[in-house]
Amino acid sequence: MKTDEAIISIIIPVYNAQAYIAETIESVLQQNYKKWELILIDNMSKDHSLDICSTYEKKYENIHVYQEKRKGVSNVRNCGLANAIGEFVMFIDADDFLPDKSVLNRYVVSMKRTNADIVVSNYERLWNGKRLSAKGNEIFSEEPRDSKDFRFQGFFSVGTLSYVWGKMYRREFLERNHIVFDSYSYAEDKMFNLQCYMNGATYAFLHSVGYIYRMNSQSLSFVYREDAKENWFRMAENLEQCLRKRGKQKGWSDIVDALILFAVFFDGKMEYTQKSVKATVGLLKAYGAHSLCRRCFRRRAYGESICSSSLFMWKMAMRLFSIGMFLHWYYLWAILIKLLVDCRIDERLSDTGLRE
Fold first, then answer.
1. pLDDT tens-digit series, residues 77-123
2. Given 202, 220, 238, which residue is the final one in a domain?
3. What pairing do the DSSP bridges indicate for beta strands 118-127 and 36-42?
4. What's the predicted TM-score (pTM) here?
5. Which residues contact residue 336 at a Cβ distance below 8 angstroms, ignoring those fewer than 6 apart?
6. CB burial class (10 A; 0-12, 13-18, 19+) of residue 322?
7. pLDDT tens string 51-71
8. Residue 334 and residue 339: Cα distance in Å, rounded?
9. What whole-number distance in Å separates Cα of residue 221 and Cα of residue 292?
10. Which domain range does residue 20 map to?
11. Is residue 356 assigned to a domain?
12. Theoretical Cys-Cys bridge with 204: which of 64, 116, 199, 245, CB 3.0 to 4.6 Å?
């Protein structure tokens, strides 16, 4: 098959995106690579998003609009997968866009050359009209695929592998392994990609920028959720069950533990930002009382690290945090989270640094 004969199914969930969706669609229309179908799934938008999508559908025969009445981005993306016909699949969020005209061609060339199941590009974040370079996949892409460092950096400290955007998937791989989106209230794409990894996905990496992620304060990533900790508990429990079924629970427990440790810190920041130090203490206590989390803190406080000595600062930070959680240093950690947020240290350590 020639490169330009492969069809790409591009799936875009749409909800109240009238301010951005036209720019997103136009970034696809402008691609030099033309063998694609665009699947737009409206999830009961209350603005004019559906009207905008329908206008494009009437104009272009390879643009298809669906409506999904079950709430949630997981249902929407699964609807897109069910209707996709392409050899390859991509996901774009409705407020993001492709940075240049050659993006699709670069993905397909890499997919064909390497015969990979997933091609991963670098990305930039758009913040108040300014494009900010994010940490590149070069940091971990040369690590052995079964190593702790590949998992830790790919899915957590750098995080590139966690997102479904900025990637191209081989549809046959997804279907053969029955990989779909589960109905989590948040971070469903992380679990989707962890399923890909646990099913032996092969990766190819593009070191060029293939995606622009708009940092939108109204998106799910920035919305406070009362059920956040229950969502992470369920995800960690399901992940551990998946590893157990594959006989990898012992050797790959670092994935579960890293998920829990990052969840505690992320939720702690949200709890402090939206409520108070006192509320953060209560949240940390809830994590400390959960049986799976408790095992995680004990294991990482006094046992093997979740990353190698080459990542010394991360290794020490995760161990110290685990010790504190295991010994119930909840007030100390709540104060530390306050300082990290107030001094913007957490922002400095993020994938883009200070957003100035």
1. 999 999 999 999 999 999 999 999 999 999 999 999 999 999 999 99
2. 220
3. unpaired
4. 0.93
5. none
6. buried
7. 999 999 999 999 999 999 988
8. 9
9. 25
10. 3-220
11. no
12. 116
